[in-house]
Amino acid sequence: MNPALSTSAMAPPSAVVPSAMPPDRAPYGSLQLARYGAPQFALSFVALPLYVFLPDYYATRYAVPLGFLGVVLLLARLLDGLIDPAIGRLADRMLAVGRGWGFMAVSGVALALGFALLLGFPAWLAYAPQPALFAAAMGLALLLTYVGYSAVGVTHQAWGAGLGETEPERARTFAWREALGLAGVLVAATVTQLGGASGFTLVFTASLALGLWLVKTAPLPRHVPGLQHGLRGWQAALEPLRHVAFRRLLLVYLASGVAASVPATLVLFFIRDRIGAAQLSGLYLFIYFAFGAAGVPLWLRAVRRFGAATSWLIGMGLTVAVFLWAALLQPGDRWAYAGVCAASGLALGSDLVLPPALLAGLIRSLGHGGRLEGAYFGIWGMATKLTLALAAGVALPLLASLGYTPGSPATGVLPPLVVVYCLLPCGLKLASGALLWFGWMLPARNPDFLTARQRRNSP
User: What burial class does residue 16 get, using C-beta atoms within 10 Å of its C-beta: 0-12 exposed, 13-18 middle, 19+ buried?
Assistant: First the structure.
């Protein structure tokens, strides 16, 4: 990619013409990028209990009904997703006036308070005598936690989008962020088992404070000359959706994200009822995330050689091959499933690092660098949460309709659990690969892919 074109408002997305890319100049050292990525350790650290541990914690320790939990968590997560574009716009404003770190710090305080309240208030406010008051306290704690989490995360991503001039540099920036996030997941899994709720809260608060202190000393986003949009409020927050190139990339991301979220939703069912190794669940998850972190450098090398879009396509192909292999496993194939976890973990790196790197490049190409990164990543964050909801909303009812009963061994050649856990993600990944190839990579070779649409869609 020509570096002059990469920061121009008239440049097509790179990543599909690798021969045109310059070598990775790595303007920032590893220590600088580690300081930038540090908050993601805490964000991923808290994501595990927030989305996995919390329902079981409330239900088993405090006898909160599952139906009540389902309704409250659903409403909170819907609200969380809907406010992401507004948070993105606010992040843009804070970054523009040099207050990005202050906004992250205030949001981090809200996140820490909300999370501590979320784990602690049931000890002094029981559900049974006064469910309405319990619901109000839980709602407040969830609101503080989700809003703080989203504000820190969206601002952090918008910050990172301004740190690289070339595609390999942007991929390297997000690679540090996601690798530290995977490390946070691994530590969280250990602390959850050893320290309980109070220990977990203390470790999380300390890691968040350290991460925010480190990012304060990280490189600041670079201002990139581009279009002056003159937009305000919701018009600015939703401006990214007016651009065809962004909508196409978002569609690829959604399809690929649902494909990744389906097996994540069903992995414990598959380990228990197909492989017959429920006692090894923790080990399998550790292997998956550890190989995800170890594979990040491989994907950075792929970006330098092939470009981000082609590398992402390769990652999708690897995922399909892995889950076709998983479909062939039989009960008792414990070591073979460990291999599936390792290989799918390697593919995970492409889903974590490459899409945000592509988005950061697109923001520059559309002339919105230094202005609307938060708006783009706000909508991106909303799409991320939508993939989790769609995965659960599709996979679980489909399993039920096919006759699967949790706890019953999934035997035979293609039982329902194998169809949904293995083959459905393969189909979705193939669809996302087709969307990436036909909807993004081929059109990007046309110089008018962005310029014509930009002239029609931009104010």
Answer: buried
Cα Dmax for the chain: 68
Nearest Cα neighbor of 326 from 280, 407, 267 is: 267
Among 211, 292, 286, smallest CA distance to 203 is for 211
Mark out the alpha helices in 217-280 (DSSP H runs): 233-237, 244-270
Domain 29-216's class? mainly alpha
- The CA distances from residue 26 to 33, 224, 356, 392, in Å, are 10, 18, 18, 40
Measure the CA–CA gap between 334 and 194, rounded to whole angstroms: 25
Is this model's pTM higher than 0.85 or not?
no
Matching CATH topology for 29-216 and 232-459?
Answer: yes
> Residues 132-174: pLDDT tens digits?
888 888 888 988 999 999 999 999 999 998 888 888 999 999 9
Domain boundaries, the chain: 29-216, 232-459
pLDDT in tens, 392-424: 778 878 888 888 877 777 777 788 889 999 999
